[in-house]
């Protein structure tokens, strides 16, 4: 098994599945991590070079067990894409402490736990990529993002800290800021008046993620924004 390994953490029907398909097409073997195996098992069967693993990213023991399993069956990862995220909305008066903590655990703590699993082998190899999927909320606290924005901001700053620490070791840490609404059936149903150009396409996000992992070390990017042309910014 000489093919490189990519771990996608947080595989849903949108960006996560698209990222998995893009890396599979590039010749990677895939580890697909999600809380439920329903979607990832079907996707793994479709790809043919992937393994679906159940994992709650907020539980350190589950993360350790999931990475131990993928190392056993696939080998050490060359690429980690952290796509897990929680995005319930509410103002500071509407959210509760559990909401606030839950968002932080998925977006920030999960990023830390997953990254710590791949860093030792990447450092030993002198190469590797860690790409986090972020959001514009990490830069501005809108009224109804009282739980989501602080969590994504914590993730963004953690990624920046990791980049400053790990780039000299040959590990490319990068952050993709998504500014827009991802094209999913639920989003289409909620916004029936919007055309194709309004939505962020998962396959396009996946291409950006993949290209980040192919950049020459002399010109690495840390933070990349993706948005449709109609998005206000």
From TrEMBL:
<dbReference type="Pfam" id="PF00106">
    <property type="entry name" value="adh_short"/>
</dbReference>
<dbReference type="InterPro" id="IPR002347">
    <property type="entry name" value="SDR_fam"/>
</dbReference>
<dbReference type="InterPro" id="IPR036291">
    <property type="entry name" value="NAD(P)-bd_dom_sf"/>
</dbReference>
<protein>
    <submittedName>
        <fullName>Short-chain dehydrogenase</fullName>
    </submittedName>
</protein>
